Amino acid sequence: MSSLALRGWYPATGLLVPLLTLASPGFLKLGDAGPAWAVLWLLPWALVDGARSGVLAGLLLGLVLDGLHLGPISQIPALMLLGWWWGRMGRKGLPIERSFSLGLLALLGSAFVGLTLILQLAVVGELQGPVLYTWLGQTLLTALLAPMVCSLQLLLWRQQVSGGRR
Amino acid sequence: MQAGPRLRLPPVRLILQVWPLALLVVAGVAVRLSKGAGVADAYAALSRPFWPGPAQGEWVKQAQRLEDQTRLRQLTADNQRLRQLLQLRSQSGNELLAPVISRDPGGWWQQLVIGQGSIQGVRPGDPVVAPGGLVGRVASVTPTTASVALLTDRSSHVGVWVARTQQHGLLTGLGSNRPVLRFLDKDPGVRPGDVVVTSPASTLVPANISVGVIQSVNGMASPAPEAVVQLSARAGAVDWVRVLMRPGRP
Q1: Of A22, A63, B43, B62, which is most buried with the most CB atoms under 10 A?
Q2: Closest chain A C-alpha to B221 CA, distance in angstroms
Q3: Domain positions in chain A
């Protein structure tokens, strides 16, 4: 079974995450918060490519996104944990394909990323303002987009992985 | 015995003929004493359809604006000259126009990314101004871009003052659309509607740049009153900003 990470331009699709985060399209916002693009990319990647690749992808995405954002809080721990969790989930049990399952996983993942950010804000003493609305908005928007975005990525990437489960 | 001259009253007929004229004379005197009251008003009412159109009024407004701008330039020049005499920090250095290439005024981070960086001379800490007033300060730079921490960002702390009462305070971002102004004095005497500008005592930003308007005041806050400030520049809507590159740098 070959890894997606070793296949040509597939890892380069991860560059879309920081680009979409920077572009931050206004029509894809809920309560001033955009979707968690990192979660939307990492979920199918880890499901297809396994835990190790998921952790590595989470680390790389987190490093890039932390570099783009100001402030002391980081997304790295949450993304690495999610990459590991989704990677294990993809390799055990039945393959996850249903839209509802993808939406639910993205909802949990986005909520987890938001919770870690809130915890970090609380630790550094900057937990103020409408963080709850931002958290809810981002989580809901990510969960709504996941069935469309993640299904397409899963379909494309599973076709490329030789021996991958369909 | 000869009788003296008899007092003769004007005949009633004459009085009846003259009283309208006398009334007119009285009215004329009243107009004279009142500087034309009634007549001028009547003329105004009658001639209203023929008054100058709005175009001439607009010319007058334009002339007024030009006069204001000239006066503003003169006052700015005076201000700089006086600050130099007092050996205070210069109010302005070079300015650089920069496009906004990414904006995230809400969410977890309140920041802009602008399309000018260290190659063009932008440095961390440079104030960034949009139409309406100050929006934030440069937090980090790359060769061709710079990230601007907005005034609403949780890490933002800028010294400001209320010009009317000359009360200083610290404008602190909360992560929401409206930052909070924490006063240094227990009795700042401010009220909603007061204009907030950057403090002349600030070493981070030039003095007297418009920041916003006080929306509400919480006099019960401890240790000193606080005010919620509605920012005058909308960071979420601007496409171009000006970076005020601080003078005295290599």
Answers
A1: A22
A2: 16
A3: 30-158
